[in-house]
Prior knowledge:
The chain is of the alpha/beta class. The protein has 3 domains: 5-16 and 201-298, 4-hydroxy-3-methylbut-2-enyl diphosphate reductase, catalytic domain (Cobalt-precorrin-4 Transmethylase, domain 1, 3-Layer(aba) Sandwich); 18-101, Rossmann fold (3-Layer(aba) Sandwich), CATH 3.40.50; 102-198, Cobalt-precorrin-4 Transmethylase, domain 1 (3-Layer(aba) Sandwich), CATH 3.40.1010. It has 10 helices and 12 strands. The protein has helices spanning 18-34, 48-57, 84-91, 102-116, 130-136, 174-187, 201-213, 229-240, 276-289, 310-313, and strands at residues 5-12, 38-41, 59-62, 74-76, 96-98, 120-124, 144-147, 164-168, 219-223, 246-249, 265-270, 291-298. β9 (219-223), α8 and β10 form a beta-alpha-beta unit. It is flat and about 70 Å long.
Amino acid sequence: xxxxxxxxxxxxxxxxxxxxxxxxxxxxxxxxxxxxxxxxxxxxxxxxxxxxxxxxxxxxxxxxxxxxxxxxxxxxxxxxxxxxxxxxxxxxxxxxxxxxxxxxxxxxxxxxxxxxxxxxxxxxxxxxxxxxxxxxxxxxxxxxxxxxxxxxxxxxxxxxxxxxxxxxxxxxxxxxxxxxxxxxxxxxxxxxxxxxxxxxxxxxxxxxxxxxxxxxxxxxxxxxxxxxxxxxxxxxxxxxxxxxxxxxxxxxxxxxxxxxxxxxxxxxxxxxxxxxxxxxxxxxxxxxxxxxxxxxxxxxxxxxxxxxxxxxxx
Length: 314
């Protein structure tokens, strides 16, 4: 039986960003330096395949520092942690390595600077997300107010409306965040914003690529984990950019083939914590069922690289 024809549009950039690449290297180098096991507080990045691969090398993932023995190194995830976590590690005299993405650390520094200048900070982010918890945990309780949407702005009760600043989670929808920032500026004209946008280059670039691909395709597949904020935002961006069907899949086995019946053109992208091997697995699954022609839609070239902490380089 002859395979049907299918056009695959591959969004670029897609997949790993520099912060994720650095975080994974940190775990690998820590195991090489200190031997197994090395403990990791929270998933180093939100991807089951990556976590399972690191477990096989000798990483043990835990949710809280208290679960770690004091005689083994511990690594803090790329999403960042509240200040209380490294302080507790110091008190327990533990070896620890902070794998927080440098672009998340930049937001932490902004929050501290606003606090030092006497400003209360509004954070635009998702409640319960590790990055939001880590960023809010840089300042004393009550110094960071959380909003998730533009509608939340009306319910804010700041200490002094004239002394406010705002920061954002790095993995948000660019368009949704623009609306929330506009609502903040409309209600609090004196609010201070970041010098540059807090949403990271990788999140922005992947969303722009999806915007370019979506009008060309009948369906969009986003390879990523359900708990990956940046991956879920790509699904939303696909839907709002002209694609009738947008699906998040962790692996090729998760593809809903029935939903794709009759499609002539399909877009593929991947969240910033999804490895290339899973992207290739999905592409191969399509090649097994269709006569595929593929085209790369590239909207940016990324050459960012972050150094690992000095303790792993010596």
